[in-house]
Amino acid sequence: MEWICDTTSLEDACAEMRRAEYVAVDTEFMRETTFWPQLCLIQAAGGAREVLIDPLAEGLDLAPFHALLADPSVLKVFHACRQDLEIFFHSGGGLIPAPLFDTQIAAMAVGLGDSISYDNLVRAYLGQGVDKGSRFTDWSRRPLSDAQKIYALADVTLLRDLYPQLRSQLTDTGREGWLAEEMKTLTDPATYQMRPEDAWKRLKLRKTTPKWLAALKAAAEWREIEAQTRDIPRSRIMKDDGLYELAQAAPQSVEELGALRAVPNGFERSKPAERLITRMQTALADPKAYAPKLDPVTEAPRNLGPVIELLKVLLKAVAEEADVAPRLIATMPDLEQIAAHDDAKVPAMSGWRRKVFGDKALRLKRGELALVLENGKVEVVELE
């Protein structure tokens, strides 16, 4: 085990790992009291090199590791990597590690269930459990004990040993293309861009009038900017219920703001309150122009319940036949959209999902397929 806390040692380790075919990577981070995740530890194993990198070490420059992550000749292997990628995207100035292999998604593609845990995946392929003794560690504290370091390093040494077996099974089933499609979302920069003007999308829309939408968008945008700038969780700026109250009241003055239950006493006299009022005034000067543009709502045909139920049965049958997790093929919202519209713009109607399920779903709706029960198992039958 190698503990790296200076740039020279990191450059040496990364130079060696760049000669490996693939590198297993994991991170430990904290974000309970911050908006941005605080990167506390990086674990990496490539070839014979096994390292723990201390990003909190004074003077350490992570540029050599970022260069390794960006190297197109070295595959980066993660498990459930979305949060790891978010960290590197922000710490590396928009960096997206590539090429990329996520063992959790690969496991779903070969039929190991929805969102299989790392521990269960290791048990399935390596026949051993994962030590969980240090999982509640405060990774920002120094020094780390030997037990904590061993625990952290095991995440990537096991991942390094796990990858070849999982990749081989994925290749044998001919589903490497499935994984590639799933990686598109994970490697899309838009996945990690937290634009304040899009913050309203995180909230459930209770009304769709221009004034209400404009006020909600302004309030959400204000909270997002405050949270990002001050690096504190959104809820510590204002909870979601407070944003809904702002949207309903649409305050445009300090006096109106101070009368709301959502704000503590004295808040209306603060600088953040000034910024909120300014944004509200801008939004409500022309609500129609400021309000987010929503997709037009088309009325769904009536009595879709039986169609959706049939599609659920078809999905289960198809998933069992393909030996893949149903959720990887289609979600409940997908089924609802397919039931209502033959040209539904949902993931289940494109790429490999359409070949496995989408086309069959449309044929079932048209009466060209039937679902029959044979020996306790649902079978999909062609109708003449």
Describe this structure in words.
The protein has 384 residues and is an alpha/beta fold. The chain folds into 3 domains: 2-191, 2-Layer Sandwich (Nucleotidyltransferase, domain 5), CATH 3.30.420; 196-290, Orthogonal Bundle (DNA polymerase, domain 1), CATH 1.10.150; 305-382, DNA polymerase, domain 1. Helix content is 49%, strand content 12%. It has helices at residues 7-17, 63-70, 82-91, 103-109, 118-126, 146-172, 176-186, 210-230, 234-237, 240-249, 254-258, 271-285, 287-290, 305-322, 326-329, 332-340, 351-365, and strands at 2-4, 22-30, 38-46, 49-53, 75-78, 100-102, 369-374, 377-382. The strands form 2 sheets. It has a 6-stranded mixed beta sheet, sandwiched between helices. A two-stranded antiparallel sheet has the order 7-8. It is flat.
Provide key terms for this protein.
17 helices, Nucleotidyltransferase, domain 5, 3 domains, DNA polymerase, domain 1, 384 residues, 8 strands, six-stranded mixed beta sheet
Summarize the helix and strand pattern as letters: EHEEEHEHEHHHHHHHHHHHHHHEE
CATH architecture of the largest domain: 2-Layer Sandwich
Q: Report the strand count.
A: 8
Question: What's the rounded overall pLDDT mean?
Answer: 94
CATH homology superfamily name of the largest domain: Ribonuclease H-like superfamily/Ribonuclease H
| Alpha carbon gyration radius | 25 Å
Residues in helices, as a percent range: 40-55%
Sheet with most strands: strand arrangement: 1-4-3-2-5-6
> What is the total number of structural domains?
3
Query: According to CATH, what is the class of the largest domain?
Result: Alpha Beta
Give the CA-CA distance, first to last residue. 65 Å
Note the main sheet: 6 strands, mixed
